[in-house]
Amino acid sequence: MANTVVAFQSAYRVSEPDLIARVLAGDRIAARELYDAHSPRVYRLAFRLTGDADLAREFTQDTFVRAFGQLSRFRGDSALSTWLHRITVTVVANAMRKVKRFRERETDLEDVHPLGSDSMGVDPVLRERLHRAIDQLPEIYRTTVIMHDIEGYTHTEIAEVLGVAEGTCKSRLSQARAQLRASLADLAPELES
Amino acid sequence: MTEDRFDELMRDAAQTYRKPPQPDFDAMWNVVARDSFGVTNPTRAGRSFRLPRGIGIAATLLLGIGIGRATVTFKSASPTSARTVATTDARTDSLPEPAPYSTETSQYLGQTAALLIALPSEVKAGRANEQFLSRAGELLTRTRLLLDSPAANDPTMRNLLEDLELVLAQVVHLENNQSRTELDLINRALEQRDVIPRLRTAAADISAN
Prior knowledge:
The complex is a heterodimer.
Chain A: H1 2-10, H2 16-24, H3 28-50, H4 53-69, H5 80-99, H6 124-135, H7 139-150, H8 155-162, H9 166-183
Helix pairs in contact in A: 2-3, 3-4, 3-5, 4-5, 5-8, 7-9, 8-9
Chain B: H1 2-16, H2 25-37, H3 55-77, H4 79-91, H5 102-124, H6 130-147, H7 155-172, H8 180-192, H9 195-208
Helix pairs in contact in B: 3-4, 3-6, 5-6, 5-9, 6-7, 7-9
């Protein structure tokens, strides 16, 4: 029985390509390992893009169901995470177009109590206005802003996920930021360039 | 300054804009597993406590063995329970009886077949490394657990599992001696016992059932 434990422990840590090969061979445990490794970031991205926990959960599940269904087509040209996030963005975009609406944030500006500055020194009213302005960006700009400024993806990663040139990604971010500044101009005139 | 102020706002947004809640990843996995593999995976006790690979399978099998043995003891010890079982059986005669551990056995057979088929090329290419052999070790453990489970009640399956136990034990011992002779012995055992075709047949039978 001692050999059993050794066998289990030594088999535990395996590389991602090996896990992928095992999933393709029908190994559900390997699939769970991949899911555990990637689901938190996929969910974060889905939530940031939708602003809705139920939708984010559903889209995360859809992402992995599609990914496992198409795993044999993953050639390893990009990182698995990039491939998964590409599926996530596609799933979210398609589904949100289908329902023809993006979930509006429920809190009205009037409901925000000016509690003063928080630890980052940001006026809550200004913060709320910025959040609304991000919500109202055109989809391609919003996705870029969320991925770069909110979730911390690099331009290279975003370009791979969205299937655009890196220059396009930088340009979109610049345009998006300009629109956000303009949206805040009445509250913070110094932001308007 | 303007750029700095805006960057500060965006850094704040990274912390506050649509801050994701903590979802139930286990429940989500159950949906993914059902839709991707047609089964519901047992939920792990908690995400912060991760069991080593394979322990879940071992636990399931051991539980099954325990239930199987307890059931046999219970049936033989109590005439009343035997009558109850008979009544229940008569009532459910028309229902198909699922093969014991069919899902687990089917997966095990598929994975074992894949490993044994790949073995010659892996050894030849020098890729029968620790990981490959660990996989064989894990399958050997599962073989022994299945031999002690109701899955081995079927004589054909038992014979196959016993042969696989022998072959996998040889594979595991390749670890420190990847000689041509060792591999030849394994290949001979595979051929003499007709292991691969029997594996495929058994897997196909389980799938058909």
